[in-house]
């Protein structure tokens, strides 16, 4: 921001010189500060922060820009003023001693004054001129000039003198702030805007739904462009901060770096690497589904990487979160001690939405975290309408993306039916949306987690069971049984059942194996006996055959013997018989 | 506030006590200043002859005094004494109001 400002600086010098106020955000809205050497009117109702803004202008000028200033107080005495702004860390006395600041209290008491004819306000001019010259002031505040009107009767004199005062201030070349109380239907009660025509800033303090929001608007700024919207601003221990909230250019850089969510299995569901750095993730779910645990795990992981994390707790106090998370094995205390984790706990209805945004903005600017957690965003609904909350979150996400900060929001969805929209309607804004929901089955509730969307990365479409154990968070594949998905003890039971079935089945197998073996043995024995039977049959058959042969031989022998004997031959007969 | 309290305590018509100490703040030789000096001198001579001290201060010359005495509108005359302290602004041309401011209205 400051770089772009410097770029604008020289360019606008040719048209209109400006003076940086040093008030956070105001210089951005006015694109470089207040018109140099001209008076600016700050108007607003009582308690809208006019005096504070003008004194901050003077003090910041004296400290940061080495421009001494004169503060003319018509309302408060100098020590009252010093006391009032001491809470902001402004040491007026020291500045006065260093001749960087001069407070001139002007007291007008009507009851003491008798008007006896023609007069003018030369006294004021002389005092102012003396004060300016004595410290070489470049900045002047007149707070609240309108008190002159209550002290003096002659309006004609007052008006001509005021006109003269403003042109005199311009001649002096001081950058002046004039404060004025807001009137009915006009910016100031006495029509000061008639005289101060260069720059008019309107402060407003509006109460909506019992919540006050301070707003600032540049009504008019001659000769320059300026933000025209109403900008919320915050008064806290560091003074005023204005947030120029509508810089939605959608031209942010993106990172390809991935960061872990702290739950390994969840990283696995997100393409194995986790979320994109600088991305936004929404964790939504019904009550008690472990959204805060997820957020704490994300924070813990960031701190383990030695990165700064800011945790905006909207529901629980930091010590409560730390205690609760230590029960699931997440030690946040050590990160708080080492300064890596900063808790910013505030009730949503502490102040308005815009103020929350400003406060978060400030906190983020201060700590420069790489991970931000807002837990939960649901309660913002109490202090604004859906569209307002959405607007606020858009700006928040935009800002965080610009700074390359990863953010995790948690949101409570009130209905048990999974809706495609969260109550805050932010689901379209975030890069990733993790949904945790109750699965009520078999007389118990279990948590189911799935990734509804995750831009730019492959992600699992599976419902996982989200378990919170003493050692942290984990995801388990749910069991898909015949009756749908099973979780919790039903899943355990189903697993047990499966184990038993397995055991029974395997013992049956063993038995069958043995039976087969036995059968084989029986059959093999049978085969052996049949074989031996066959052998004996064969032998029998062989024996008959041999006997027949033998018989035949003997018969032939006998016949040959007989024949031989008949012929009376003796020698040849055995020979032939042997041949046969 | 303190002045108002004294207003209640001290009788308004009290003009016999002490000399009148008057301080007139003017701005150089502006027409209003010149008139104021002339008018107040005349009034003092007429009503407070010998019983007053009039100090005329040009705040152009002594701007520090202007701050000390809380001068805004000029000419300004401060009646330091007798009490109550009063501040009269203007060129003192309205004699009645000047006398009222000096606490001499009853005499006229």
From TrEMBL, chain A:
UniProt region (Disordered), positions on chain: 561-580
Keywords: Coiled coil, Hydrolase, Kinase, Phosphoprotein, Repeat, Transferase
Transmembrane region(s): none
Ranges for domain KaiC: 17-256, 257-489
Source species, domain of life: Bacteria
Keyword Hydrolase: yes
Residues in coiled coil: 520-558
InterPro entries the UniProt entry points to: AAA+_ATPase, Circadian_clock_KaiC-rel, KaiC, KaiC-like_dom, KaiC_dom, KaiC_N, P-loop_NTPase
Pfam family, one: ATPase
Phosphoprotein in keyword set: yes
Enzyme Commission number(s) of this protein: 2.7.11.1
Gene Ontology molecular function terms on file: ATP binding; hydrolase activity; protein serine/threonine kinase activity
Name listed for the protein in its UniProt record: non-specific serine/threonine protein kinase
Gene that this sequence comes from: kaiC
Automatic annotation (TrEMBL), chain B:
One GO BP annotation of this record: rhythmic process
Pfam families per the UniProt record, alphabetical: KaiB
Highest taxon above the source species: Bacteria
Transmembrane segments: none
The protein's name in its UniProt record: Circadian clock protein KaiB
SUPFAM superfamilies in alphabetical order: Thioredoxin-like (SSF52833)
Domain spans labelled KaiB: 23-104
Source organism of this protein record: Mucilaginibacter phyllosphaerae
């Amino acid at each position: 921001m400051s770089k772009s400002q410097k770029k604008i600086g020289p360019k606008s010098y040719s048209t209109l010189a400006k003076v940086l106020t040093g008030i956070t955000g105001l210089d951005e809205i006015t694109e470089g500060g207040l018109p140099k050497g001209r008076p600016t009117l700050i108007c607003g109702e009582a308690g809208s922060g006019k005096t504070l803004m003008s004194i901050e202008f003077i003090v910041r000028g004296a400290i940061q820009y080495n421009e001494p200033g004169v503060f003319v107080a018509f309302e408060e005495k100098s020590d009252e003023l010093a006391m009032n702004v001491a809470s902001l860390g402004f040491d007026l006395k020291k500045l006065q001693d260093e001749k960087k600041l001069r407070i001139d209290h002007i007291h007008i008491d009507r009851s003491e004054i008798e008007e006896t004819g023609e007069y003018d306000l030369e006294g004021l001019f002389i005092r102012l001129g003396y004060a300016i010259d004595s410290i070489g002031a470049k900045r002047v505040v007149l707070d609240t000039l309108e008190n002159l009107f209550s002290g003096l009767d002659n309006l004609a004199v007052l008006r001509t003198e005021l006109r003269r005062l403003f042109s005199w201030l311009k001649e002096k070349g001081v950058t002046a702030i004039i404060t004025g109380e807001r009137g009915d239907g006009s910016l100031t009660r006495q029509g000061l805007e008639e005289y101060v025509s260069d720059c008019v800033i309107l402060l407003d303090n509006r109460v909506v739904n019992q919540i006050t929001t301070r707003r600032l608007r540049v009504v008019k700024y001659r000769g320059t462009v300026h933000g025209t919207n109403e900008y919320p601003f915050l008064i806290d221990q560091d003074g005023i901060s204005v947030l120029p909230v509508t810089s939605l250019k959608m031209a942010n850089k993106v990172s390809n770096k991935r960061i872990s969510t702290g739950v390994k299995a969840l990283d696995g569901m997100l393409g194995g690497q986790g979320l994109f750095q600088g991305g936004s993730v929404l964790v939504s779910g019904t009550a008690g589904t472990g959204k805060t645990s997820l957020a704490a795990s994300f924070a813990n992981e960031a701190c383990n990487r030695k990165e700064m994390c800011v945790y905006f707790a909207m529901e629980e106090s930091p010590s409560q979160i730390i205690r609760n998370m230590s029960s699931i094995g997440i030690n946040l205390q050590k990160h708080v001690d080492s300064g890596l984790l900063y808790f910013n706990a505030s009730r949503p209805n502490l102040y308005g939405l815009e103020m929350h945004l400003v406060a978060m903005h400030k906190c983020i600017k201060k700590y420069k975290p790489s991970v931000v957690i807002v837990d939960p965003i649901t309660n913002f609904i109490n202090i604004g309408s859906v569209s307002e909350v959405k607007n606020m979150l858009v700006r928040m996400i935009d800002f965080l993306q610009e700074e390359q900060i990863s953010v995790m929001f948690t949101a409570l969805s009130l209905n048990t039916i999974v809706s495609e929209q969260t109550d805050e309607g932010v689901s379209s804004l975030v890069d990733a949306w993790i949904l945790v929901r109750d699965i009520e089955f078999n007389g118990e509730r279990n948590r189911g987690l799935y990734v509804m969307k995750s831009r730019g990365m492959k992600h699992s479409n599976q419902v996982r069971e989200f378990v919170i154990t003493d050692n942290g968070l984990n995801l388990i594949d749910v069991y898909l049984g015949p009756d749908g998905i099973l979780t919790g003890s039903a899943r355990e039971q189903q697993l047990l059942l499966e184990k038993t079935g397995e055991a029974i089945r395997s013992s049956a197998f063993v038995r069958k194996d043995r039976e087969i073996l036995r059968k084989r043995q029986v059959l093999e024995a049978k085969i052996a006996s049949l074989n031996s039977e066959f052998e004996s049959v064969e032998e029998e058959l062989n024996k008959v055959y041999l006997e027949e042969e033998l018989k035949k031989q003997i018969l032939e022998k006998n016949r040959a013997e007989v024949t031989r004997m008949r012929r009376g031959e003796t020698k040849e007969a055995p020979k032939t018989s042997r041949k046969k | 506030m303190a002045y108002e309290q004294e207003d209640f305590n001290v009788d308004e018509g009290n003009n016999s006590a002490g000399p009148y100490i008057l301080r007139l703040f003017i701005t150089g030789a502006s027409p209003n200043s010149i008139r104021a000096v002339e008018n107040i001198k005349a009034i003092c001579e007429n009503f407070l002859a010998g019983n007053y001290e009039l100090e005329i201060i040009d705040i152009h010359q002594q701007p520090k005094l202007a701050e000390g005495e809380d001068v805004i509108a000029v000419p300004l005359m401060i009646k330091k004494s007798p009490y109550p302290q009063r501040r009269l602004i203007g060129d003192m041309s309205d004699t009645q109001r000047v006398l009222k401011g000096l606490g001499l209205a009853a005499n006229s």
